[in-house]
Write a structure and sequence with these properties.
The protein is an alpha/beta fold.
């Protein structure tokens, strides 16, 4: 039988729920943080910030309260409604509108509800303690009455909800609640720079707004598989966590960071008529979602427990909970296909915003479950309805069911046409092999999470999810994957921490791989390493980042543009090397075999970009005015330059003690059309430049530390130091510090020093002395871990728990520098912060 998938998913994936540049409206009680979120949106998304209260005062010369006292309630209502109409009409594109926190007039709220049909209207919520801290004269009971009054009204007028889980003013957003979400240790706040106090909030809100206005179209894009660094993982994993687990007294947010690719937030559904109202559950759900969003770095799937009865009240609440998931701006939403419901229509209307996964569990499949016509009709239904994905499961009654599940996946992959991604595996103990070899979002758990399962689930303990380590072990034990050898090579890598952190990650996943150091005087010995059938890849250190280029069969576009590499992968599946690598190339990782050539990439810039973005305060979000400074002009400086261009920085200043080298580096990027450098600039480094195109960054040169900063360039808020702080190849060590004339940014900035030999440099000491002015110091160890995370993902396809490598590196350095009190104190503080955060 020939089957053809429909193209329904293709057309839907290209649609957005709202027009490009649609304005958003923020509503909510006073003290929920609407103004902070509006500032984030205006800075990050280039939106114009419009405050209704400010506009009213500008229009009338009076505050709303003063106007009411002077002109009466009726005239105030008319004036407010007229102004609201004008604002919503005049600022309908590319604006963030802040609604008054005390506005409850029915006519205005109806106007807002109508506006929400074509624009996101977001209800901003926050815990009682944080709102009370804002409304300090009010007691808790008065604040609670206010929230109970306005939140249901605002919910009826909005189409989205965002929970402000932040640490502003030292108030944890979960304190003072009847059912608090898991929190981090107090030490996290004591060591976190004050300028980064809204960083978590910025990241969560940007993700939220992106999901609403610019939804990704495919699972691969959402998992970051088509961004740098590429993963193209053959096997991906889904961590499941329930509301009851999140509410467990012993729950630790560190358990969310376990190497999984996505997280499924599981909402329990009582299977009887005695159901709690949605409003009573909304608070618990949105706080659990906000906690998961903060501490899990990846897409979140909103999953409501399947209805197991035909009770109409149960079915109705199931649909209500799905619709509430839509309000949270989740990445994915599962829909139970076991039962059909008229209420699904509203959910399907939103499939151009949220990505839908059809979820089907066959409780009584029979002997031909996987090959039955019913099963294939289900797949076709998913194609026709425009689902992004389909998850099909059944209990395994025999070992043959595991082979049948694999056959089902193979046959579905052969069907021509656009189709949803397919997840298929068996449950019960006999189904564990099919879960180990399922390729897309295999459900996993951790031993710690398993300990928080409700007692009611203990009877099903034999059917508990496997761990990611168990699945990886099965792949190696079955010879699907092989033990591979990795190396860091360079002129002198005897000091390198790469083996320490890479092998810690190998051990975490239960992989049989090893990474070792190889110092060498020339590139010749590299050939012997890469010809080994078990060579998995090379990390290229100082000395060979550019000279290795000529020995490669293919390089990534990033490496070609930078003109240097730091990562080499043996080619075991040929392709046309002028094109990007194929899926077969990526699938050959972790597998031994003959080597046909070498593929090179540069991930130095990825680590630098991550360090900058994670430490750049919301006050310094990158805009068209942002200026950065690079110190140095070697191979690492090239990667730093490229990282800045990838972040969208349009103004870059270069300083190097040999100015001609800085000019040469700028010319390398100028020749590719990425920066503008006029002829006069090349001849006279201090002369001004004028870009021909906004697509080009403008570059300037500083000849010495005595050079004044440029009058028409904003002071730098990003500084990247790419010069050695210890002697290298006979060259003297650098004791570079920033001239005060280059540190005049009123909002501070981030300074990344790529050195970790020594860990504490004169530059970092200087920056830490200015932390009260918003300056954040980032040392080379943080950059090393960020780059190694990206490299490990490329080598093995696995995502390392965020802080695993950095913690291992810090512990290693603590032992090495045990006699250096200054370094040990800094390392201990960083470890405290990281271990508290994770």
């Amino acid at each position: 039988m020939t089957r053809t998938a429909s193209n329904g998913a293709t057309s839907l994936s290209k649609r957005h729920g709202f027009e490009d540049e649609a304005s958003i409206v923020l509503i909510g009680a006073p003290g929920t943080g609407k103004s902070s979120l509006a500032h984030i949106a205006s800075s990050s998304f280039r939106m114009t910030q419009v405050d209704v209260n400010d506009t009213f005062r500008n229009e009338t010369g009076l505050t709303r309260t003063a106007f009411r006292k002077q002109h009466g309630i009726a005239q105030t209502r008319d004036r407010e409604l007229s102004l609201l109409r004008k604002i919503l009409n005049d600022y309908s594109r590319n604006c963030v509108i802040v609604f008054p926190g005390d506005y409850t007039e029915e006519a205005g709220l109806l106007l807002l509800k109508q506006y929400s049909k074509e624009h996101p209207v977001i209800l901003v919520r926050r815990c009682l303690a944080a709102v009370q801290n804002y409304l300090k004269p009010w007691d808790a009971s008065k604040v609670e009455r206010l929230l109970k009054l306005v939140e249901p009204v605002y919910r009826a007028s909005s189409n989205f909800e965002f929970y402000n889980l932040d640490e502003t003013d030292g108030v944890d957003a979960t304190e003072g609640t009847s059912n608090p979400a898991p929190t981090v240790s107090p030490e996290l706040k004591s060591h976190r720079p004050w300028s980064l106090r809204l960083k978590h909030l910025e990241k969560a809100f940007m993700h939220f707004v992106n999901n609403i206005l610019h939804p990704s179209s495919t699972l691969e894009e959402t998992l970051g598989q088509y961004s740098a660094p590429n993963s193209h993982a053959v096997y991906t994993y889904l961590l499941g966590v329930s509301l009851s687990q999140l509410a467990h007294d012993d729950f630790n947010v560190a358990w969310l960071d376990c190497g999984a690719d996505a997280c499924q937030l599981e909402i329990d559904l009582p299977q009887h008529e005695n159901l709690s109202s949605l409003h009573s559950r909304a608070d618990e759900i949105i706080r659990a979602f906000a906690t998961t969003r903060r501490f899990f770095d990846g897409p979140i799937i909103f999953h409501v427990q399947r209805p197991t009865s035909k009770n109409q009240a149960v079915a109705a609440q199931y649909v209500q909970l799905l619709q509430y998931g839509l309000r949270l701006g989740v990445d994915y939403l599962t829909i139970d296909l076991t039962h059909s419901s008229d209420g699904y229509s509203k959910v399907f209307e939103a499939r151009n915003i949220v990505k839908l996964i059809g979820d089907y569990h066959d409780h009584g499949p029979g002997s031909d479950g996987w090959s039955s016509e019913k099963r294939w009709n289900l797949f076709q239904k998913a194609c026709d309805r425009g689902f992004h994905g389909l998850r099909v499961t059944q209990p395994a009654l025999s070992a043959d069911d595991n082979r049948a599940a694999t056959h089902y996946l193979v046959e579905a992959a052969r069907i021509p046409g656009t189709k949803p991604f397919l997840i298929a595996y068996n449950t019960l103990p006999l189904g564990r092999p099919s879960r180990c070899f399922n390729r897309i979002l295999t459900p996993i758990t951790t031993p710690e999470l398993q300990s928080t399962r409700p007692h009611a689930e203990e009877s099903h303990s034999l059917d508990k999810p496997i761990t990611i380590q168990q699945s990886q072990s099965a792949l190696y034990s079955s010879f699907t994957y092989d033990a591979m050898k990795y190396y860091i090579v360079g002129l002198d890598v005897s000091f390198s921490l790469s083996p320490v952190i890479h092998n810690a990650a190998h051990m975490f996943f239960g992989m049989l791989h090893r990474l070792e150091r190889r110092s060498m005087d020339s590139v010749e010995p590299i050939e012997k390493l890469t010809n080994d059938p078990h060579c998995g890849g090379l990390s290229i250190a100082q000395g060979y980042k550019m000279s290795m280029l000529s020995r490669l069969s293919a390089v990534s576009d990033h490496a070609r543009r930078i003109g240097a590499i730091n990562t080499v992968i043996p080619i075991r599946a040929r392709w046309l090397y002028s094109n990007p690598p194929t899926a077969e190339f990526w699938a050959s990782r972790n597998r031994a075999g003959p080597v046909f050539g070498l593929y090179g990439d540069n991930l130095d810039w990825v680590g630098m970009r991550q360090c900058v973005l994670e430490n750049l305060s919301p006050a310094n979000v990158i805009t068209e005015r942002t200026t950065a400074l690079i110190v140095g002009a070697g191979g690492m400086a090239r990667a730093a330059f490229y990282a800045l261009l990838q972040m969208g920085v349009q103004h870059v200043a270069l300083f190097n003690r040999t100015p001609s080298n800085a000019v040469s580096m700028a010319k390398h990027f100028s020749d590719q059309g990425m920066v503008h450098m006029s002829d006069s600039a090349a001849k006279n480094p201090e002369s001004g430049n004028h870009r021909k195109s906004l697509a080009e960054a403008e570059v300037r040169f500083l000849e010495s530390r005595d050079s004044p900063w440029f009058q028409d360039f904003a002071p730098p808020t990003i500084v990247m130091a790419c010069i050695p702080a210890s002697s290298v190849a006979g060259e003297p060590a650098s004791n570079f510090t920033l001239p005060q004339a280059w540190m005049t940014s009123q909002t501070g900035g981030v300074v990344l020093d790529l050195n970790y030999r020594p860990l504490v440099t004169p530059l970092l000491r200087q920056v830490r002395r200015h932390s009260d002015k918003g300056w954040v110091a980032v040392d080379g160890l943080e950059n090393l871990a960020a780059q190694a995370n990206a490299q490990f993902k490329v080598f093995t396809s696995r995502k390392v728990p965020k802080n695993l490598m950095r913690i291992e590196a810090l512990k290693h350095c603590l032992a090495i520098h045990k006699d250096d009190e200054e370094v040990c104190n800094i390392i201990r503080n960083q470890l405290t912060q990281l271990e508290s955060a994770t």
